[in-house]
Amino acid sequence: MTIQGTGWKHDLLLALCATLVVLAINAVSGFPTIADLGEDNDSMLRLVEVRDLLAGQGWFDLHQYRMGLTGGFVMHWSRLVDAPIALIILAFQTLGAGTAAAERAAQIIWPLFLFGLTIFVILRASRRFAGTDVAMPSLVLATAALFFLGIFSPGTLDHHNIQLLLTAASLWLLMEAPSWRPAAPLSGLCAGLTLAVGMETAPYVAALGACAAVLFILDEKERMTARGFGIGFAATASLVLVATIPPAAWGVAQCDAFSTFQFVIAALSGFGLAAIAGLPGQSAARARLVSMSALALVVAAVAILFFPQCLAAPYAGIDERVRTYWLNDVVEAQPFLSVAVNQPKLMAARYVTPFIAILLIGLQLRSRRLRREEALAAVLLVAAFVVSLWQVRGSTFSVAFAVLPLSTWVAGIRLQASAARSWRVSSRIAAAWLVSLNTTWAGVAVAAQSVVQKAPTGVNSDADHALTCSKAADFSELAAMPATTVLASSNLGSAIVMFTGHRALAGPYHRNVGGNLAMLDAFMGMPDAARAVVEREHVGLIAICRGNSEEMSLAAEAPAGLAARLLKRDVPDWLELDSSTADKPVEIYKVR
C-alpha cells in the first residue's frame, strides 16, 4: 500500500472544503481577528519583522531595532517563518496590490493555508490510527478543534500554527514509513524544521526520535525507518544551520533558538541513528538496544559537557522582576493549576478532550496490545499532555493529537449504530460527539461557573484578559506624531511598532530584559525616579491604555508609582496630556 492508494485525494478535498468553510465564516464576519488582533502580540511583531525584511534588513539580522533600549535587541525567531509570508506579500505587490492590501492577503492566506494542510495531515493520521475509514468524524473534530484553538485564524502570523503542522506531519509520516519509503526521511525533515522554527517543540521532536529508535530496537524490519528518519533529521538541521545562521555565529550556542547547540545534538543523534541502523550484525534486539543506549549516552555527554547552560529550565536566568510582573502573567506559559483556578473555560477547552483521548487509549490497552500506529500517536499525545500540565501552550498539540483516538471512538459507535439501530445507540453517538468536542466542555465550564460563583478577578482570569487598545484606530493619534521612543506597558509594545513609526521601550519578549526593566522602573517608581528613566532612555511620549490588565496590575503593586498616578489622572508637572487623546483608548502624554 502506498500513500497514493489510500484516498489521499479524497482527504485533500475534505481539507479544502473545511478551509473554505472557515474562510467563509471569517469573511462573513468581516475578518474580526485581523481588525482586532487582541492579545496576539507575536503576530503583530512577526508582521513588523516581515516588513523590515522586505525593507532591506539583512536575512541574518534578527534585531528588532524599534523595541527595547537604544539599539534594540536580537529576536529569537526564525526567518523560516518570515520568508513565506514575505513572498505572499511580494506576489500580491507584483500583481499591482498596494502594501496594505498585500499584507492583508498574507494575513488571510498564510494561516488558512496551514489550516488546510493540518486538517489533511490529521485526516491521514486518523486513517492510520484507526485502520479504517474515519474521515467524517476526524474532519468534524479536527476542524472544530483547530478553529477554536485560534492559532489558524486570519491574521495569526505567529509560529505556533506551522509548528503544529510540522509536528503532526512528522507523526503521520512516521506512521506511513513501512508502506511508503520516502515517508521516514520526510518525517525527519519535518521534525528538523519544527525544531528550527522554535524550541517549544523540542519535547515532541525528542519523542519522535525516540520512537524511531525504539521501533528499530523492537523490530529489525524498522531498520529503514530509523535510518531514513535519522538522515532526514540530521540533514535538515545541517541545512537550517547554513541557511539561517551566519557563519560568524556558528560557534555561538543559543538555548532559546536554533544554533550550534541544536545543530550538534540533532546531527549527532540523527546521523548516529542512521549509522547504527545501517550497521551489519544488528539482527539481535539486544545488540540494537546496546548500540542505541551508547548513542544516547554520547549525546547526553556532549550536551552536559559542552552546553550545560542549555540544560537549565527555560527562563531560569530571567530577571526576577520581569518574571514576577510579566512572565507569571503570560497566559500561554501558565501551568495547569493556575489555568484551572483562574481560567476554567480555558482549562475545560484545552485539557478535557486530550484526557478523554488518553483514557480511550488506556482502555484499549486493557483488551489488546496497541498497533504500531496507535502506539506512536499515544506517545505524542501523552508527551503533549504532560507538557501542557507544565505550560498551557502544550495543549495546542494535545488537543490536535486527541482527534485521532476520539474520531476512532466516534466512528466505532457509528458502525454499531448502522448494524443495530436503536435509541440507545443513537444516544451513544450523540454523547460521543458532544464529549469529543472541546467547545462542549468550554460551555460546561462557563455554565458551571455562572451558577457556582462569580468569575475570578485576578490578572490571569478569563474576564481580565480581554486586552484593549489593539486596533489600528486606537493608535492613529500616536502614529501621527513625530517618531520618538514611547514608554508604555509591555503588552502594547508590539502594537506600537506595528501601527506607528515609534520605538517601544517595553515589549512582551524575554530577550528584551533591559527595556522591560526600564518600563517597570518608570511605571512603578515615584515621579522623580520615573523622570530619570525617561530622560536616560530619551522617551518622548508616554502611552496609557485604561483597562489594560498589565497597567492595572502595576498600579496595584505600586499605588504611588507613575502608572497608578496617570490612571488616576494625577499628572506630574513634567508631563502634559495631549488633549486630542483625552478619553481615547490610548491617552498620550508628552514629556515637557
TrEMBL record:
Q: Does the keyword Transmembrane helix apply?
A: yes
State the UniProt keywords alphabetically.
Membrane, Transmembrane, Transmembrane helix
Spell out where the chain crosses the membrane: 108-126, 138-157, 201-218, 230-252, 258-277, 289-307, 346-363, 375-392, 398-417, 429-448
Top-level taxon in the UniProt lineage: Bacteria
What start and end residues bound the annotated signal peptide? none
Q: Does the keyword Cell membrane apply?
A: no
Record's protein name? Polysaccharide biosynthesis protein GtrA
Which species is listed as the source? Answer: Rhizobium loti
Lineage, broadest ranks: Bacteria, Pseudomonadati, Pseudomonadota, Alphaproteobacteria, Hyphomicrobiales
